[in-house]
Design goal:
- There is one protein chain.
- With 398 residues, the protein is of the alpha+beta class.
- Among the domains are: 89 residues, no CATH class; 140 residues, FAD/NAD(P)-binding domain, CATH 3.50.50.
- Helix content is 27%, strand content 21%.
- The chain is built from 9 helices and 15 strands.
- The strands form 3 sheets. It has a 9-stranded mixed β-sheet with strand order 2-3-4-1-10-11-12-9-13, sandwiched between helices. It has a 3-stranded antiparallel β-sheet with strand order 5-6-7, with no helix packed on it. Strands 8-15-14 form a 3-stranded mixed β-sheet.
């Protein structure tokens, strides 16, 4: 996964250079924060292991506010930023970097070679490049796939109510949350499931969060703060009693838009139950307030909005995942049919290397060393099955 992601970011940077960064990629990084000494130790153990796999140097910081190695990431762009990660053990040093964070934070891991970009602009740029090479975009719904002797022969597409049969040598199943049902059209049971992930956009008119903040994640479980009366009322109703219980780690946020934008994005998937994909999306009516209350644990200043929450805009989608949170990229048992999906929370970040790998499979090109890790047939390997039995299902989750 490290080699795969490094390659993908290399390709993203190449596209950013050639397009004058039309999709506004930045490298503000991801900042993970904790108030738990055990979690600080886990930060160190995990980041050491990942550094050995090729993510870059792990830099340790113990308490010098003028530490020249602890540099701030630029607000825009991606050049001149160190790779690897910075692990900070001193609360005062954390607050010198991010004074708006709770004083309960005792450990911080700032991973550097990451950030965000405009997915819409990236997609538009890639589509135009493909069309300049002769690609055509046709819209329709796949309603059937024909095969003969386990070999693809044609695809049936509904176009404006009319079924059209298209002779085809190759078909790539890349239907995101519909991966499983599309695979069923070919008689393949793809080992994937979906989680509903939401994001809440609200305005921050009081500028509690600086516009140059990175993406920031609270790594500890959270108990929401309620008054005694609220706790009594919530606990008395089976539909709301869960709001008084401890909720999972992972509430996070980032600024959205330019320096003059007041918008912040708040995200927290506290319900990881598999979901059947349905549209339009249906979110818990409590979701915006729960996420805001969870965020107050990391950002005490956001409590100012609890009495009157700014009008939220809730959006999101599905994370299509395999059991171990690795993608499916490559051929299937049906000759000519390929799968590309289950990129879960790293879809945009991993899309470039994934597309390159898929193209190598389709054209019988040279495959990178990590190609076998993403094949569907890995689940037929007894050794791999043994590994799965001991893996954390949240491994690699973003």
């Amino acid at each position: 996964m490290v080699a795969f992601m490094n390659r993908s970011i290399d390709l993203l940077e190449g596209l950013a250079h050639e397009s004058n960064n039309i999709f506004q990629m930045n490298r503000r990084g991801y900042v993970f924060l904790t108030a738990d000494p055990t979690q600080v130790n886990l930060y160190q153990e995990t980041s050491k292991q990942i550094a050995l796999l090729g993510t870059g140097q792990l830099r340790l910081h113990f308490g010098n506010p003028e530490d020249p190695l602890l540099t701030k990431s630029p607000v825009e762009g991606f050049q001149g930023v160190p790779d690897g990660a910075d692990l900070v053990f001193d609360p005062e040093l954390i607050h010198s970097q991010f004074p708006f964070i709770t004083n309960q934070a005792i450990g911080m891991l700032h991973t550097r070679r990451c950030g965000w970009l405009s997915a819409q602009q990236l997609g538009t740029y890639l589509l135009k490049k493909a069309q300049s090479c002769g690609a055509r975009l046709l819209r329709g719904k796949v309603i059937g796939v024909k095969t003969s002797n386990d070999k693809l022969t044609s695809v049936i597409v509904d176009r404006e109510g009319l079924p059209v049969e298209i002779a085809a040598r190759n078909l790539v199943i890349a239907t995101g949350p519909h991966l499983k049902e599309t695979g069923a059209l070919v008689g393949i049971d793809l080992p994937v499931y979906n989680e509903l992930h939401g994001k809440v956009a609200i305005n921050d008119p009081l500028k509690v969060i600086p516009r140059d903040a990175p993406l920031m994640v609270w790594s500890d479980p959270v108990c929401l703060s309620w008054s005694e009366g609220e706790i009594k009322e919530l606990a008395s109703d089976p539909k709301t009693c869960w709001l008084t219980e401890q909720l999972p780690a992972g509430v996070h946020f980032r600024p959205e838009g330019g320096k003059d934008s007041p918008v912040i994005l708040m995200l927290w998937t506290y319900n990881l139950q598999p979901k059947e994909p349905t549209f339009p999306l249906n979110f818990d009516p409590f979701y915006p307030e729960v996420v805001l209350r969870g965020l107050v644990t990391m950002l005490p200043g956001m409590a100012v909005y609890l009495e009157r929450i700014p009008k939220p805009y809730v959006d999101g989608g599905y994370y299509c995942k395999t059991q171990e949170n690795r993608p499916l990229i490559g051929p299937t048992p049906v000759q000519g049919v390929y799968v590309y999906g289950a990129l879960s929370g790293f879809g945009i970040m991993g899309a470039m290397a994934g597309g390159e790998l898929l193209a190598a499979h389709l054209t019988d090109g040279s495959l990178p060393h990590y190609a076998p890790a993403f094949l569907l047939n890995r689940y037929q390997d007894p050794k791999y099955q043994a590994l799965l039995a001991g893996w954390d299902v949240t491994s690699g989750q973003l």
